[in-house]
């Protein structure tokens, strides 16, 4: 069987590679979805749920021309999380989302990746001044949103779960 490649641009930062999801990401993704950390991004999930998440990411890119990049640490070549713009049915507007695995926490990886994704989305995908849905109990994501210049704009609900809606500055405002 021949795979049909999607034209998902690779973005490089000083320490990271933002790239298309690969089939080799399934095991680390499945491992992540068994952890408590995954509850802020739709987990926990079993192996089938991790597979569904992986193929949904590729489907999002295929249907919309934008989506989640998988984050690779240049130094270790490890898949350490994801970031990008997603927009699912029933959502208010496109969201800048992010998640990093435990080994990447506290190293500025999420900030570096989300900043690069936000900039690319604004300049090339027509998504500037996007929002992030963040659970009120997710202190780390709230702190990262603040660090990225976002402000808490409203309270809402996402898939039946209360959330805060954080508004990111437009790229020219953040420069």
Topology:
Layout: E1 11-12, E2 16-19, H1 26-32, H2 47-64, E3 68-73, E4 79-86, E5 95-100, H3 109-124, E6 131-134, H4 139-147, E7 151-158, E8 161-167, H5 171-174
Antiparallel strand pairs: 1-2, 2-3, 3-4, 4-5, 6-8, 7-8
Helix pairs in contact: 1-2
Describe the structure.
- With 175 residues, the chain is of the alpha+beta class.
- The protein has a domain at 11-126: Gcn5-related N-acetyltransferase (GNAT) (Aminopeptidase).
- Helix content is 31%, strand content 26%.
- The protein has helices at residues 26-32, 47-64, 109-124, 139-147, 171-174, and strands at 11-12, 16-19, 68-73, 79-86, 95-100, 131-134, 151-158, 161-167.
- The strands form two sheets. Strands 1-2-3-4-5 form a five-stranded antiparallel β-sheet.
- α1 (26-32) packs across α2.
- The longest helix has 18 residues, at 47-64.
- The chain starts with 10 loop residues before the first strand and ends with a helix.
Summary tags:
175 residues, alpha+beta, Aminopeptidase, five-stranded antiparallel sheet, three-stranded antiparallel sheet, 31% helix, globular
